[in-house]
Amino acid sequence: MKRANVRFLALVPAFVWIAAAAAAEPAQTVSGEAVYQRWCSHCHSAGRGNPGTESLKVKYGDRLPSVLLERTDLDAAAVKLFVRQGVLSMPPFRKTEITDVELAALGDYVAKKHVKP
Amino acid sequence: MALPPNVSSADFNRAIAAWKQAVGNDWVFTADEDVALYRDAYSPYWGEKEERVASAAVAPSTVEQVQAVVRTANQYKVPLYAISTGRNLAYGGSAPVYSGSVVLDLKRMNRVIEVNERNAYALVEPGVSYFDLYEHITKANADVWIDPPDPGWGSVIGNALDGGGGWTASPFRDHFGAHCGMEVVLANGEIVRTGMGALPNSKSWQHNRWGFGPWVDGLFRQGNYGVVTKMGFHLMPRPEAMQTLTVRVPRDEDVVPLVDALNLLENQHVVNGSTSLGGGGAPGGPAGAAGWSVSLPIYGPAKVVPAQIEYSREKFAKIPGATFTETELFRTPLDAATLARVRKVSFGIPDLSTFGLLGRNAANPSPPGGHMDFSPILARTGESVLEFIRMYREKLPELSEGGTLRILGPVFMTNWDRTMVALLMFPVGRDPQVNGRMRNAFRRWIELCAERGWGEYRTPSVFQDDVAKAYSYNNHSLTRLRETIKDAVDPNGILSPGRYGVWPKHLRKT
Fold first, then answer.
1. Which chain A residues are Cβ-neighbours of B340 within 8 angstroms?
2. What whole-number distance in Å separates Cα of residue B255 and Cα of residue B330?
């Protein structure tokens, strides 16, 4: 495997005191797919080792797809509900994990992005 | 908006305003719906008045902001409770130990500051998850492994500080033991760097963990003496190969020579993987079936591992009736087809597959949702295992109400070097009556184990006082020492009051 120089950032001097407000972060385009891959795909993808998929398979049987992105009945509001309230062993996600802006993008992605089974 | 205990509305409002000034309005949470996201999803007191809940949350993104937040809390005597990624499920999640504390949410401090392939270490912030560090290393094409615990969304720092462990090779899977150097913000806002990091021009912070003089890092493991904002971790250079030997022995009493041989091989560093002891034909599974089994993963050079397997077989062959199976010799990195059929965490790849065990599945279609882990440390001998089994079988009918509570286990965990943990899992959910019965049973197990000299290595936050009380040698002298230190370094008692049974002076019950 190729060796890489992986020292990325010099350490910031630790004794710098910054009392000013945090600088406003520039507006960025949020990718719902990126949010999904980061936070949802580890449980809700197809195949072995996806407990969210396994759980939904038990819940719905053959009535609905168990892989989240194959669902056609979910809207952004439903996605928001599950992300912010959690269900069974899936805990809710805080706004430091998924911001409201990211959650809106995720909802749109899950609601509109349908992968044919 | 709830108020922290013993804090006036005026003072709390001043603190909130100062925090907004320090971290930005978007990262101070006071609305009920936002604060509710910090509830412990697996709380055994869910919805009851004893549930540990926050009054607010504040989320800095830099160490300077942490300093500002802590100084304000100290000024107004507002209790804080620091979390890293907030995923310490089954041990308290993102909720404070002391109700009304403001959660200091460090998730936004998510920088991988350095990955050094040459000397095999990383330096990270608390919000960095195992997924994050793995992704960073993969993108950098660095030839080192991380050591994932069960859930990959956990914090590398948080898991180490809570005493967590993982699934690859020793010594890396003892996560606190594998750390090297930390940066801590004290209650007065001052920054301390430990080990070699105390040298202003240090070039060896992650090269030597001890430094000079008394070593203080241990104070911050399961501690509340400061807020850890950076930690170094030693990483494992990618091993060339891995192979697992499984040994089965036919009689229950064979666990005595089985554990002796296991200990010998681990203490000789012949076996370095995360071994798994279990009943009958199921390594890692609960005891019950006749006989025992143990699986022994070995990581190392492809030419050497088979010789270590052979040496290990010779040691177990002395047990009459011992039988052996071996996996193939896995060469790393694994190809996609192989990866699809192995347990990823054993190959340094984080995932969330562990939630399949206690989540809804075909064998358990209506789980309650959460669980609590009960994990006493035994002596690492077969005799201790048999003693625990005897107690478990004797007491289980009473403590599980004839089996209706469905307490799971015991699983005998040998993940940590020289350590044996007898893990029980208590399912909890949203039914207060069932949760109450689980809590009663949990507390009784704590007492029963303490009577036999077994203490937990870690426990859900609501039981931390119970477990701490069991460590009572010489009139609780260890607890009193910890309290003396707490009062000295955090005189206002603002940092994570009650964490692991350490309370500041004004909150101690006499």
1. 47-48
2. 28
